[in-house]
Design brief:
With 190 residues, this protein is mainly beta. The protein is built from 1 helix and 14 strands, in the order αββββββββββββββ.
Protein backbone atom coordinates (compact mmCIF):
# COMPACT_ATOMS: atom_id res chain seq x y z
CA UNK A 1 0.00 0.00 0.00
CA UNK A 2 1.33 3.42 -1.03
CA UNK A 3 0.72 6.10 1.61
CA UNK A 4 3.14 8.74 0.33
CA UNK A 5 0.53 10.76 -1.64
CA UNK A 6 -1.89 11.21 1.30
CA UNK A 7 1.04 11.99 3.66
CA UNK A 8 2.29 14.66 1.26
CA UNK A 9 -1.19 16.16 0.94
CA UNK A 10 -1.59 16.13 4.71
CA UNK A 11 1.81 17.76 5.20
CA UNK A 12 1.05 20.39 2.54
CA UNK A 13 -2.27 21.19 4.24
CA UNK A 14 -0.55 21.55 7.63
CA UNK A 15 2.12 23.88 6.17
CA UNK A 16 -0.56 26.00 4.49
CA UNK A 17 -2.50 26.22 7.79
CA UNK A 18 0.67 27.25 9.68
CA UNK A 19 1.52 29.89 7.08
CA UNK A 20 -1.94 31.40 7.41
CA UNK A 21 -1.78 31.24 11.22
CA UNK A 22 1.63 32.96 11.42
CA UNK A 23 1.20 35.32 8.48
CA UNK A 24 0.91 38.20 10.97
CA UNK A 25 4.61 37.79 11.80
CA UNK A 26 5.39 39.17 8.35
CA UNK A 27 2.90 42.03 8.64
CA UNK A 28 3.00 45.48 10.18
CA UNK A 29 1.32 45.87 13.55
CA UNK A 30 -0.26 49.25 14.30
CA UNK A 31 -1.12 50.10 17.89
CA UNK A 32 -0.97 53.03 20.31
CA UNK A 33 0.81 51.04 23.01
CA UNK A 34 2.77 47.81 23.18
CA UNK A 35 3.43 46.37 26.66
CA UNK A 36 5.92 43.62 27.50
CA UNK A 37 5.33 41.67 30.69
CA UNK A 38 7.48 39.14 32.53
CA UNK A 39 6.47 35.60 33.51
CA UNK A 40 4.55 36.96 36.54
CA UNK A 41 2.58 39.43 34.42
CA UNK A 42 4.48 42.53 35.65
CA UNK A 43 5.07 45.28 33.10
CA UNK A 44 8.76 45.41 32.20
CA UNK A 45 8.66 47.60 29.08
CA UNK A 46 6.25 49.62 27.01
CA UNK A 47 6.41 51.33 23.67
CA UNK A 48 3.89 54.13 23.53
CA UNK A 49 3.05 57.59 22.14
CA UNK A 50 2.22 59.89 25.10
CA UNK A 51 1.31 63.35 23.76
CA UNK A 52 2.42 62.25 20.28
CA UNK A 53 6.00 61.51 21.38
CA UNK A 54 7.34 57.99 20.68
CA UNK A 55 8.69 56.61 23.96
CA UNK A 56 10.25 53.39 25.18
CA UNK A 57 9.78 52.94 28.94
CA UNK A 58 11.70 50.26 30.86
CA UNK A 59 10.71 49.00 34.34
CA UNK A 60 12.68 47.09 36.97
CA UNK A 61 11.30 43.83 38.46
CA UNK A 62 9.45 45.83 41.17
CA UNK A 63 7.60 47.89 38.53
CA UNK A 64 9.59 51.13 38.97
CA UNK A 65 10.30 53.12 35.81
CA UNK A 66 14.10 53.06 35.41
CA UNK A 67 14.72 54.28 31.86
CA UNK A 68 12.85 56.31 29.24
CA UNK A 69 13.96 56.87 25.66
CA UNK A 70 11.89 59.41 23.74
CA UNK A 71 12.09 61.49 20.58
CA UNK A 72 10.15 64.77 20.76
CA UNK A 73 10.11 67.71 18.34
CA UNK A 74 12.88 69.26 20.51
CA UNK A 75 15.10 66.21 19.93
CA UNK A 76 15.96 62.83 21.46
CA UNK A 77 16.30 62.28 25.21
CA UNK A 78 17.35 59.42 27.46
CA UNK A 79 16.29 59.47 31.12
CA UNK A 80 17.84 57.09 33.67
CA UNK A 81 16.03 57.03 37.01
CA UNK A 82 16.64 55.88 40.56
CA UNK A 83 14.25 53.12 41.68
CA UNK A 84 12.94 54.78 44.85
CA UNK A 85 13.35 58.57 44.42
CA UNK A 86 13.19 61.09 41.62
CA UNK A 87 16.98 61.20 41.26
CA UNK A 88 18.23 60.67 37.77
CA UNK A 89 20.27 61.48 34.74
CA UNK A 90 19.00 63.00 31.50
CA UNK A 91 20.85 63.09 28.18
CA UNK A 92 19.33 65.35 25.54
CA UNK A 93 20.25 66.65 22.11
CA UNK A 94 18.24 69.58 20.83
CA UNK A 95 18.43 72.84 18.91
CA UNK A 96 20.41 74.42 21.76
CA UNK A 97 22.98 71.60 21.61
CA UNK A 98 23.65 68.47 23.68
CA UNK A 99 23.44 68.42 27.46
CA UNK A 100 23.66 66.07 30.40
CA UNK A 101 21.62 66.92 33.51
CA UNK A 102 21.63 65.38 36.97
CA UNK A 103 18.52 65.51 39.19
CA UNK A 104 18.35 65.21 43.00
CA UNK A 105 16.03 62.90 45.00
CA UNK A 106 13.24 65.49 44.69
CA UNK A 107 13.46 65.60 40.91
CA UNK A 108 15.08 69.05 40.82
CA UNK A 109 17.68 69.67 38.15
CA UNK A 110 20.93 70.35 40.06
CA UNK A 111 23.82 70.01 37.61
CA UNK A 112 24.05 70.41 33.84
CA UNK A 113 26.92 69.93 31.41
CA UNK A 114 26.31 71.43 28.00
CA UNK A 115 27.90 72.61 24.79
CA UNK A 116 26.84 76.14 23.83
CA UNK A 117 25.23 76.53 20.46
CA UNK A 118 25.29 79.73 18.40
CA UNK A 119 23.42 82.50 20.18
CA UNK A 120 22.93 80.54 23.42
CA UNK A 121 23.27 83.24 26.10
CA UNK A 122 25.72 85.12 23.90
CA UNK A 123 28.41 82.41 23.93
CA UNK A 124 30.36 81.28 20.93
CA UNK A 125 29.32 77.94 19.52
CA UNK A 126 30.97 74.82 20.90
CA UNK A 127 32.00 76.15 24.32
CA UNK A 128 31.48 73.58 27.11
CA UNK A 129 29.81 74.69 30.32
CA UNK A 130 28.78 73.55 33.77
CA UNK A 131 25.68 74.89 35.50
CA UNK A 132 25.07 74.19 39.19
CA UNK A 133 21.63 74.84 40.67
CA UNK A 134 20.43 75.41 44.23
CA UNK A 135 17.76 73.13 45.83
CA UNK A 136 15.02 75.22 44.15
CA UNK A 137 16.50 74.53 40.71
CA UNK A 138 17.75 78.11 40.22
CA UNK A 139 21.16 78.42 38.54
CA UNK A 140 23.64 79.51 41.21
CA UNK A 141 27.01 78.82 39.58
CA UNK A 142 27.70 78.91 35.86
CA UNK A 143 31.17 78.02 34.61
CA UNK A 144 31.89 78.32 30.91
CA UNK A 145 35.12 77.53 29.06
CA UNK A 146 36.21 80.42 26.88
CA UNK A 147 37.90 80.42 23.45
CA UNK A 148 41.43 81.41 22.44
CA UNK A 149 43.26 80.33 25.64
CA UNK A 150 42.87 77.96 28.56
CA UNK A 151 40.31 80.01 30.43
CA UNK A 152 37.05 79.82 32.33
CA UNK A 153 34.44 82.33 33.32
CA UNK A 154 32.33 82.13 36.49
CA UNK A 155 29.05 84.03 36.06
CA UNK A 156 26.78 85.59 38.70
CA UNK A 157 23.35 84.25 37.77
CA UNK A 158 21.53 86.57 40.19
CA UNK A 159 22.71 89.60 38.25
CA UNK A 160 20.54 89.80 35.15
CA UNK A 161 22.89 92.12 33.25
CA UNK A 162 24.88 89.08 32.14
CA UNK A 163 28.12 91.00 32.59
CA UNK A 164 29.00 90.14 36.19
CA UNK A 165 31.71 87.53 36.27
CA UNK A 166 35.15 86.37 37.26
CA UNK A 167 37.37 85.53 34.32
CA UNK A 168 40.42 83.33 34.91
CA UNK A 169 42.83 82.74 32.03
CA UNK A 170 46.24 81.34 31.27
CA UNK A 171 47.56 83.64 28.57
CA UNK A 172 50.98 83.95 26.89
CA UNK A 173 52.08 86.49 29.52
CA UNK A 174 50.94 84.22 32.38
CA UNK A 175 47.80 83.80 34.46
CA UNK A 176 45.27 86.60 34.78
CA UNK A 177 42.11 87.22 36.80
CA UNK A 178 39.47 89.79 35.94
CA UNK A 179 36.44 90.63 38.10
CA UNK A 180 33.57 92.43 36.38
CA UNK A 181 30.31 93.79 37.81
CA UNK A 182 27.60 95.22 35.55
CA UNK A 183 30.11 95.36 32.71
CA UNK A 184 32.70 97.41 34.70
CA UNK A 185 36.08 96.01 35.79
CA UNK A 186 36.27 95.98 39.61
CA UNK A 187 39.84 94.62 39.73
CA UNK A 188 42.25 92.54 37.75
CA UNK A 189 45.55 90.71 38.21
CA UNK A 190 48.09 91.37 36.79
Amino acid sequence: MDTSAPDFQSLAARVERLEKQYHWLKSEVATEKLVLVDAEGKTRASLCMPAGVPSLVLHDPEGNVRAILRVSPEGPALHLLDAKTKAGLELTVGDSGPDVSLFDVNGKQRLTFDIASPGKSGYESGLPGLIMRDPNGTASVVVRALPHSPSVCLFDTRNTDGNTSIYIAMENEGPSVLCVKAGKVLWSVP
